[in-house]
Automatic annotation (TrEMBL):
Pfam families in the record: HD_3 (PF13023)
Annotated ranges, domain HD/PDEase: 27-144
SUPFAM superfamilies, per database record: HD-domain/PDEase-like (SSF109604)
Gene3D superfamilies hit by this protein: Hypothetical protein af1432
Any one GO CC term of the record: cytoplasm
InterPro entries for this protein: HD/PDEase_dom (IPR003607), HD_domain (IPR006674), YfbR/HDDC2 (IPR039356)
Protein name: 5'-deoxynucleotidase
Catalysis performed (reactions): a 2'-deoxyribonucleoside 5'-phosphate + H2O = a 2'-deoxyribonucleoside + phosphate
Cofactor: Co(2+); Mn(2+)
Species, as recorded: Candidatus Enterousia avicola
Keywords noted in UniProt: Hydrolase, Metal-binding
Gene Ontology terms for molecular function: 5'-deoxynucleotidase activity; metal ion binding
Top class in the EC scheme: hydrolase
Amino acid sequence: MKTIVDFLKIAEKLECEYRLTQMSDGMNQSVAAHSWNMAMMAIAMEPYFVRKYDMNRVLKMCLLHDLPEAIAHDIPLHEQNDMCRMEKRSQEACAINKIMGLLNNQSVSECFDEYEKRVSFESRLVKALDRLDTTVQHLCAKDLTYVGKYNDNFYWKLFFSDEFAAHFDFEPILRKVFDEIKQQVSNRLKDELDIDSNSFIGVKNENS
């Protein structure tokens, strides 16, 4: 019983780990909330998927994919470089080993491995939902000015790039939802900040 309780104490920390993205109340989004949102998106879009997915695996991956950040912490994309990403992978591998040392559940280890390899359609779907949740937060954020504060509009250039949109093309409903979000975000930028989103279109972003 102690190992299960120790695992739950680690999992709770994901509720205290905050991402750069902001929510509709102006607060930063927790990593746990991000994982929950992904599961909600998977449930909402399931009837429209053209492929048949193992939804049990999808939902489990949604909830588990960022659990190592309860130990290794989240690093905003604009702060990452090759060395940082290598160190992050190393820290997350150690975190996974610690988590697996507490659980007698091989399927959890398989979920981590499947998500990292991104070979299965389920893992590709979960990664797409990971990206899509960020765009939902761009839409729902109380104040959009924070998104443009980093590295000469890094996140807007990423969001409006063709390279980013292409991540959703393998499942038509994902692309349709993304396109609708992008249009609504574009309208918000114009109405609230008098920013024409066309100024970001076509700008290359190496992290997209």
